[in-house]
Amino acid sequence: GVRNYAARNNLKAMKKGEQVLYYHSNEGVEVVGIAEVVKEFYQDPTTTEEAWVVVDLKPVKKLKKPVPLSALSVQPVTEQEWKVILELAGEK
Fold it and tell me: In whole angstroms, how far apart are CA 41 and each of 2, 20, 47, 76?
């Protein structure tokens, strides 16, 4: 469960079919793959607090090498930022 208001707002902005960078936040703390939004935001089932939401994702691709998360979080990225992250991951 994401418990950060800025991240929650970004989850609410995600649209079905959009691709997202998937990362491990507890172990490794790095971007490890690309996923696709298959269900837009809904109430987080792990809490009764209405402030928190989740989206459903499906895996699209595992990155060739992880990208450290030192400067990233749940946030929108520009097309150029997306390309840079994929370059860092060894993708074309």
Answer: 12, 14, 14, 15
